[in-house]
Amino acid sequence: MPREDASLPACHLCLCAPGMLRRPVLNLASLWKRSVVLTSCQNKSVMARELHTRRLEGVDKNIWVEFTQMAAEYKVVNLGQGFPDFSPPSFIREAFCNAINGGVSMHQYTRAFGHPPLVKILAKFFGRIVGREIDAMEDFLIAVGAYQALFCTFQALLNEGDEVIIVEPFFDCYQPMVMMGGGTPVYIPLKPRKSTGPGLSSADWVLCPEELASKFSPRTKAIVINTPNNPLGKVFQRDELQMIADLCIKHDIICISDEVYEWLTYDGSQHIKIASLPGMWERTVTIGSAGKTFSATGWKVGWAMGPGHIIKHLKTVHQNSVYHCATAAQEAVAVGFQKEYDTFGTEESYFKQLPAQLHTKRLRLAECLRSVGLEPIMPQGGYFMITDISDLKVDLNDPSTKDEPYDFRFVKWLIKEKGLATIPVSGFYSPEHRGDFQNYIRFCFVKEDSTLKAAEDILRQWRVKQSNF
Amino acid sequence: MNITHMLRSCRSLCCFLETNPTRKFFSTQFNMTSNKHKNANRIEGLDKNVWVALTSVAADPSVVNLGQGYPDIPPPSYVKEGLAQAVMVDRLNQYTRGFGHPSLVKALSQVYGKVYGRQIDPFKEILVTVGGYGSLFSTMQGLVEEGDEVIIIEPFFDCYVPMVRMAGAKPVLIPLRLKSGKKSDISSADWILDQEELASKFNSKTKAIIINTPNNPIGKVFTRNELQAIADLCIKHDTLCFSDEVYEWLVYKGHEHVKIATLPGMWDRTITISSAGKTFSVTGWKLGWSIGPEHLVKHLQTVMQNTLYTCPTPLQEAVAQGLLRDYELMGQPECYFSSLAEELEGKRDRMVTILKQAGMNPVVPEGGYFIIADVTALNQDLSHMEGDEPYDYKFIRWMIKEKKLAAIPVTAFCGEESIKHFEKYIRLCFIKQDSTLDAAETILKNWSKA
Predict the structure, then answer these.
(1) Do the beta carbons of residue B300 and residue B138 sit within 8 Å?
(2) B59 in contact with A at a CB cutoff of 8 Å?
(3) Half-sphere exposure of A398 (CA within 13 A, CB side)
(4) Average pLDDT taken over every residue of chain A
């Protein structure tokens, strides 16, 4: 049916849209959507299309969009989304202000793959850590946050049908990004070791080696690990990383290592870069974040670091998607890293000061949660702490959430009824396993003491009320 | 668009414009690692980019750079101050709303509500992106896919074709053509589309047409009638329209920027793209936005939440403050949107004069900050130059080496079949301070001297 024939009524045009007839496989969702178009266009004099592309199938929901909106609507004490409510350190804010006043070039395009002063200092800084010479121009891509670095990685490497192993619980964007890249996620959960009871430290949550090995197939393209892990806080030990590395080498796959919380380890836990293990540099893309490093999440400067022959593909995606990142922010981060390079390991280093501050806040939050009868899982690293809420008996009584997982319902109730924002942990699990992890919620403790106190007050008052019944 | 042509042109341009011969531009070293680590199909052939090569040329301080399109004039001071103030507010250094910082989308809703003459919902009909470039990408990924065709008007900003290809779709090109009989005093208005040719490009697979007004590189400002003709075809064939209007405020006397989305029947099918970088002379801030109906913008928002999630907060706050200030001044000479255009008109006129002095034949742009010039009359013999790339690439190489002046070859903005129409043209950027234009004038005045 020729669509050029404008004498046909508009709704007839949409019914006969060749796209609908052309595609041999239509899933139910798109059939439903097209029937909705048919109905709605009968009411319009000009038919405008209802459209979405197949790459967006199933990736339209987003936990952050949902919960940041709720946190904004209700007056809450916000221990939900992972950002500090204190300011970045003054030396880095000054660096940004200096960049703003630093001449015309600071406000115009810089090098597409990364502002030269930034990539040069990152190459120096991380070269010293991993013990190899890293090429600033070839081995780095600066991106709009670690988020965009991840996007470039998946888009650069995945073809339809490639499998990507994802360790659960995972930062939620890995799954839709794999899907948007045409890939198939294959999940493997961290599980509490039976021998040490309920697993009250993130160290107790481990991968089963046999189970992990079974997830590799000829279609496996990559594995994604996140250490320190969000939301659990696990810091993978050397032998755990070695086990993963052995499998990567055996199956010749790429390791994507999300290390945005790399400086935030506690109680003597050490962050280890899997890229520094033998045979791993040439197959690892390491993701980093200035936002998490310098407590400036709103600057959205991140990077992918790896061997040039892989990074060059990320660069191709980047130059065809956003092309450049903001110049002045990159300049400021470069200045910050130069300072940290010079003070590394000393008391003046922010990379030492921040984890020391957060260590105390972490203990404080854990203590508070225990005092109200909850059992938090003590994180070895990162911004977050999760706790089991099964023992809390509440009447959620909210019909609008009745079809959602228990933790989603609980978190929404906690926001509306108690004014405390957290994040439901089942959002960090695959659809297949979500049902088994509906009883945990995630708290962010990278907050001012006054915020933590306000949260404590809410929880204690609630506990008092409960015990009075 | 013939990808072989694009690769060939880019490769030769890259080779000869590189100032650092030791820097590896393409991997000539043998890749010892696995085939499994090769690039995904979606980016096959998209690795070369003319700007990536040319930024390295700009680094040579002895060359007067009228090539890449960014200002060397400072941005307005209140915009810089706005950013410095934003950085001092704690919460403005942390994540903001993913689809656009509230104060920015509200300011955009105000400014564009006035421009469009309609109420624009700041949360559902606007998406803030990483530059106009990021808006183009979100639009393509959100709305274009395999099996689709997308009509692109030549000469086009070069990213349109690779973005369409990355989305799996087919670019269909149609050139602007110089009206016959025009030999001198040519304006960008003399470059027009053949209506029958345009109509023939639409078919059942056409998903969208991309228009760019004011156009880069020619500077054409599409008239209401020209836009109406395009709109008629969009409505007839039920296609979308992606309107790249990043130079929307830079329109010179006697011409009017018309938004195709304001024509009847077009709001529901148009995504309009704008840029803070071009609006406030801060290309390095990389902020832009898409405006359109909710049922289209929501798909761009889905792309955003799965690609980079949110744009930098302090930069968005500063742009919001800048927009609100200029909103109050709209229609008055102090409004930056008009004062910048006035400043640039003087620079444009100066460029026209000095290009003529060198014996070139400029096309006077109605808008934007580029000017193209026909170099045919110079009769520059380049037969000694090796390689089979188009004349303009060779001319640029020769000009950089012999005249120390950089420009961009216009065939970088067209497909293979149109090379013969554009290969005698070079593009120069005139949003430059007077000292830069002085230096260019000296070179052009002395052109014919040995």
Answers:
(1) yes
(2) no
(3) 18
(4) 88
Within A142-296, where are the H helices?
Answer: 145-157, 174-180, 209-214, 238-251, 290-293
Q: What amino acid occupies position B177?
A: R
B242 within 8 A of B139, measured Cβ to Cβ: yes
pLDDT value of residue B257 = 98
Counting beta carbons within 10 angstroms of the beta carbon of residue B429, is it exposed (0 to 12), middle (13 to 18) or buried (19 or more)?
buried
Q: What percentage of chain A reaches a pLDDT higher than 90? A: 74
State how far the Cα of B390 lies from the Cα of B421, in Å rounded to an integer. 11
Task: From chain A, pick out residues whose CB is under 8 angstroms from the CB of B142.
Answer: 52-53, 56
- A322 and B166 within 8 Å at the Cβ level: the answer is no
Name beta bridge partners: B364. B187
Please answer yes or no on whether A53 and B68 come within 8 Å at the CB atom: no
Q: What is the pLDDT of residues A143-185, one digit of tens each?
A: 999 999 999 999 999 999 999 999 999 999 999 999 999 999 9
Distance between CA B429 and CA B441 in Å, rounded?
13
pLDDT on residue A2: 34
Residues 6+ apart with CB under 8 A from B1: B152, B161, B171, B173, B415, B416
How far does B183 lie from chain A, in Å, by closest CA? 37
For A279, the token pair is 């045979």
Residue with tokens 């139910």: A28
Question: Which residues pair with residue A444 across a beta bridge?
Answer: A384
With an 8 Å Cβ cutoff, are A64 and B98 in contact?
A: yes
pLDDT at A28 over 50: no
Q: Are B419 and B411 in contact (CB under 8 A)?
A: yes
Tens of pLDDT, residues B190-225: 999 999 999 999 999 999 999 999 999 999 999 999
CA distance A399 to chain B (A): 26
Q: Measure the CA–CA gap between B218 and B371, rounded to whole angstroms.
A: 6
Q: Could you report the per-residue pLDDT of A179-237, keeping only the tens digit for each?
A: 999 999 999 999 988 655 555 899 999 999 999 999 999 999 999 999 999 999 999 99
Kindly provide the ipTM of the predicted complex, given to two decimals.
0.91
Across the interface, whether the CB atoms of A97 and B84 are under 8 A apart is answered yes
CA distances from A354 to A86, A294, A447 (A): 12, 9, 12
SS3 at position B416:
helix
Residue A33 or residue A277, greater confidence: A277
Residue that the structure tokens 């948007």 belong to: A180
B273 strand-pairing partners: B244, B290
- B77 at the A interface (CB within 8 A)? no
Q: Which amino acid is at B450?
A: A
Residue from B6, B43, B105 to probe the interface with A (highest A Cβ count within 10 Å): B43
In angstroms, the CA A291 to CA A300 distance is: 6
Q: What sign results for the dihedral spanned by CA atoms A4, A6, A8, A11?
A: positive
Between CA A192 and CA A207 the distance in angstroms is 9
Taking an 8 Å cut-off on Cβ atoms, the answer to whether A59 and B37 are in contact is: no
Contacts of A346 (CB under 8 A, 6+ apart): A352
Tell me how far apart the alpha carbons of residues B432 and B416 are, in angstroms, rounded to a whole number.
31
Better-scored residue on pLDDT, B183 or B316: B316
A104 in Cβ contact with B72 (< 8 Å): yes
